[in-house]
Design brief:
Blueprint: E1 2-8, H1 14-17, E2 18-24, E3 32-42, H2 44-51, E4 67-72, E5 84-88, E6 97-101, E7 105-107, H3 114-118, H4 122-134, E8 142-145, H5 151-162, E9 166-171, H6 174-183, E10 187-190, H7 196-204, E11 209-214, H8 218-226, E12 228-236, H9 248-259, H10 264-270, E13 273-276, H11 279-285, H12 287-303, E14 310-315, H13 319-328, E15 334-338
Parallel strand pairs: 8-9, 8-11, 9-10, 11-12, 12-13, 14-15
Antiparallel strand pairs: 1-2, 3-4, 3-6, 3-15, 4-5, 5-7
Helix pairs in contact: 4-5, 4-12, 8-9, 11-12
Length: 339
Amino acid sequence: MRTKQYVLIGHGEPDKAFALRDAELPALKEGQAILESEGFGLNFADVMARRGIYQDAPPLPSVIGYEAVGRLVQDCGPYRKGRRVLAFTRFGGYASHIVVSEQTIRAIPDSMPLGEALALAVQFCTAYHAAYECVNVFPDDHVLVHAAAGGVGTLLVQLLRLKGCTIYGTAGSDAKLDYLRQQGVHHPINYRSQDFVGVIKGKLGTRGLDVVFDPLGGSNFKRGFGLLGKGGRIVGFGASEQLGGGLQIIDTLKLAWNFGLFSPIQLLISSKAMIGINMLHIADDRPHVLGRCMEAGIEMWQKGAIRPVVGAEFLHTQLAEAHRLLESRQSTGKVVVRW
């Protein structure tokens, strides 16, 4: 079967980085099927791959993309032909027809909107695994979410709100602060005009935060770690501070330096913890964990406990515009591309 694919042919601006091409899908292996895609989601890792600074990205030319929603062209495991499913694609998502694995697909209702469904793959799984599995939050916890208006951030806020936490959230504009208030953030902080460390210390004094969720890395991670109280935990799930616009090697070295040096002895003495999450590697080595998180998201959506926010939806012919929006950090919630 043939497919249309947006192939990443070079690193740089989105108008020149992608080319729409026809391709023949590879022969299927046991436990695989073909998905006819309705659309795919964008994640910040896609921007980093396009810029050439995502180490897990496949070599050029390649088809990136972590997730898709569509209907199965043939039976796959417990799912019958024509079943609508959410798929974690492990790259290859920017295509009209995609080879998917039984281990990384889950059935979804026909009534689930495309964008909300796509948010339940990478973004919800990251948020759920971070907040409900890697750490366990409680009603009296004070928790900081960086980039709280983004896709993962929005879902983290919703999950933390369900647990009754006091939530601090950072964003880069007053409009986004209003969005955070609507989502239930108790203390929105504009990181462009406010020092989040000073704001939080002013509210908590010497108490310290219980958990920090950080997709930025670098100096931000180091400063967030300093805000933790005894028994506090910081969960890192990205390093978007690396997107500095300079030479890649310089940006990478600067990022590593900004993270700072930490010793296990330091963690033991202060009774603090650092946790890193990469859903790509979890999907590779522990697909049952990914599946468990996807199932939790679908169940919570069906019960109305969470509601992913779709910030923007584009036609596939507007892929470059979708990338520019996500890279600009002006988007909120999920950015979606529809075939």
